[in-house]
Specification:
There is one protein chain. With 83 residues, the protein is mainly alpha-helical. It has one domain. The chain is 82% helix and 0% strand. The protein is built from 3 helices and no strands. It has helices at residues 3-28, 35-54, 58-79. Helix 1 runs antiparallel to helix 2 (35-54) and helix 1 runs parallel beside helix 3 (58-79). The radius of gyration is 14 Å and the shape is elongated. The model has no long low-confidence stretch (mean pLDDT 89).
Length: 83
C-alpha cells in the first residue's frame, strides 16, 4: 500500500466513524429540527469518503469499499429520500 493510499484509508475510516455517530444520534430523533442540517453534513461526509476511495489503487480501494459496506447500507436503507 502506498503512503497516499494509507492516508486515504485512514481518512475514510475516520469519516465513517463520524457517519456512524451521526446515524446513532439521528436514530433517536429522525424527525427532529436538526434532521435537514444533519442530512446535508452526512451527505458531505459520504461524498468525501467516496472521493478518497476513488483516488486509491485497486486493492486498497476494494478493502475500503468492503469496510464501509455495512454503514453505507444502513444509511441508504434508512435515510435516502427523506428530506
Amino acid at each position: 500500500m502506498t503512503p497516499s493510499d494509507r492516508i486515504r484509508s485512514r481518512t475514510v475510516s475516520n469519516r465513517v466513524k463520524l457517519v456512524q455517530e451521526h446515524l446513532e444520534a439521528m436514530q433517536r430523533d429522525t424527525h427532529g429540527l436538526e434532521f435537514g442540517p444533519w442530512r446535508r453534513e452526512v451527505d458531505s461526509l459520504w461524498k468525501s469518503i467516496f472521493g478518497q476511495i476513488s483516488k486509491m489503487s485497486p486493492a486498497p480501494q476494494q478493502r475500503s469499499l468492503e469496510s464501509i459496506r455495512e454503514v453505507w447500507t444502513t444509511y441508504v436503507q434508512h435515510y435516502t429520500g427523506e428530506y
